[in-house]
Give the backbone structure.
Amino acid sequence: MALVRSVAVVPDPLLLTEQASAPSAEADAGWVYSKDVSGRTELFYRDDTGAEVQITSGGAVNGGGTEPAANKVLRANFLY
């Protein structure tokens, strides 16, 4: 994966194809990427220490915390 160090304006939705594996950690950089989890494309972030955070789970925002017991999926219904 090539590292791009610039600011870009993306006027359309951003397509993130699934990665076979997480990108390598790089000093002072972070990665946002998608990969397959049990047949579903999920969104991830990897920081410069190599720590990986799963942003979505089961199609919803993953509301996990730092403790395993707090790792829950956050689902919200908005009524107008």
Observations:
- The first strand starts at residue 31 and ends at 37.
- Confidence is low (pLDDT under 50) at residues 68-72.
- The CA atoms of residues 74 and 80 lie 20 Å apart.
